[in-house]
Design brief:
The protein is of the alpha/beta class and 394 residues long. The protein is built from twelve helices and 13 strands. It has one domain: Thiamin diphosphate (ThDP)-binding fold, Pyr/PP domains (Rossmann fold, 3-Layer(aba) Sandwich).
């Protein structure tokens, strides 16, 4: 137990040391013109079998404002989902993303909706990034008809195919081979788009990930494996589950990059670099060093396997929204009041969406067998004796 405590403390210290290096004063404006601002990422990228991209990232005041707004909206949505869950309006599994927002917004800033994304169950904010609405999100969370999966998927199964978002998956790691399959389709069609398959540090130890990576590398598929390393798989710290927690190196023969996943601009730079690389050469791994503020899911208070100091330390030193707020203030793009006003607007948008979602009805019982089998395929359901057809599914 003593070992556990000291290793835990060591892990917490490491997270914060990285945080100290990432503290805002290290960001310096390299140059700025009316439209373009060049900002240095919090820490340099580290490459495995590849020369990393530059720390200098080009951005604009509009982009920084949109990062702030989008991340504030995501944060508010997750906090509201927490309250709705506690009020028993959301039931079943529910995994929140607050803390990790920079990964969702930075990735979107580098790609188009023709590029695809697939993720695990921590999917609400990825869905918003893909163009999903708050109403579709809250209605899905509450199992209502207006949800993005018509209220039949719930928290873990958000989808938006027209926005290139393929879910929303509950089996740890299973989305990675599916993502590589989407990349195979993209390569087959020659459409010059890529697929981002997101998975956690816990999922990084799954065998199917390595099988899919091997095949993707053999076929030079445009697959970008994004390990969102929030340092815990449920209540298990990364060092207890992984002999090598350098997830960006775990592809061995596949190149990798380690990225500060709390810095939206670093995420944007890495994703844009990875897209170009993958289209030319095949798969690449991005390890996003990030953190979740909530527990693993709503049934985990999140404070038994990590210290309060670790959580507050990261909030104070590495928070992705605070990083962008400081940039906006430092570059005189907005003042404190304007940013507070945006946060108020966002809160109202979330409240309005919840009110609308509550008015949405539950799905009709006839929906029970839809979206399971191919429509009109004549699937029949038999009794246990296999003699009598009990139902023909729609
Ligand atoms: C194959 C499989 N094994 C176990 C589980 C139970 N489980 C759900 S989430 C999880 C931890 C995954 O952690 P990580 O990949 O780090 O993702 P995070 O939740 O941190 O985003 C586990 C073990 C599961 N859903 N599927
Ligand atoms: Mg994890």
């Amino acid at each position: 137990m003593a070992l556990l405590t000291s290793r835990n403390a060591a892990a917490g210290g490491k997270l914060l040391r990285c945080a100290a290096a990432a503290a805002i004063p290290t960001i310096r404006q390299l140059s700025s013109s009316a439209s373009t601002i060049t900002v240095e990422t919090s820490v340099p990228f580290t490459g495995h079998r590849i020369d990393p991209p530059s720390r200098s990232v080009e951005t604009t005041s509009e982009e920084l404002m949109s990062f702030f707004r989008d991340m504030a909206l995501m944060r508010r949505m997750e906090i509201a989902a927490d309250s709705l869950y506690k009020a028993k309006l959301i039931r079943g599994f529910c995994h929140l993303y607050d803390g990790q927002e920079a990964v969702a917004v930075g990735m979107e800033a580098a790609i188009t909706k023709k590029d695809c994304i697939i993720t695990a169950y921590r999917d609400h904010c990825i869905f918003l990034g893909r163009g999903g609405t708050l109403l579709e999100s809250f209605a899905e969370l509450m199992g209502r008809k207006d949800g993005c999966s018509r209220g039949k998927g719930g928290s873990m199964h958000f989808y938006k195919k027209e926005g290139g978002f393929y879910g929303g998956h509950g089996i740890v790691g299973a989305q990675v081979p599916l993502g590589c399959g989407i990349a195979l389709a993209q390569k087959y069609r020659n459409d010059e788009n890529v697929t981002f398959a997101l998975y956690g540090d816990g999922a990084a130890n799954q065998g199917q990930l390595f099988e899919a990576l091997n095949m993707s590398a053999l076929m030079d598929l445009p697959a970008i494996l994004v390990c969102e390393n929030n340092h815990y798989g449920m209540g298990t710290a990364e060092w207890r589950a992984a002999k090598s927690p350098s997830y960006y190196k775990r592809g061995d023969y596949v190149p990798g990059l380690k990225v500060d996943g709390m810095d939206a601009l670093a995420v944007k730079q890495a994703c844009s670099f990875a897209k170009q690389y993958a289209l030319k050469n095949g798969p690449i791994i991005l390890e996003m060093d990030t953190y979740r503020y909530h527990g693993h899911s709503m049934s985990d208070p999140g404070s038994t396997y990590r210290t309060r100091e670790e959580i507050t330390g990261i909030r104070q030193e590495r928070d992705p929204i605070e990083r962008v707020r400081k940039l906006l203030l430092a570059h005189d793009i907005a003042n404190e009041k304007e940013l507070k006003d945006i946060e108020k607007e966002v809160r109202k948008e979330v409240d309005d969406a919840i009110a609308k979602a509550k008015e949405s009805p539950m799905p009709d019982p006839s929906e029970l067998f839809t979206n399971i089998y191919v429509k009109g395929f004549g699937s029949e359901s038999f009794g246990a004796d296999r003699k009598e057809v009990r139902a023909t599914l729609p």
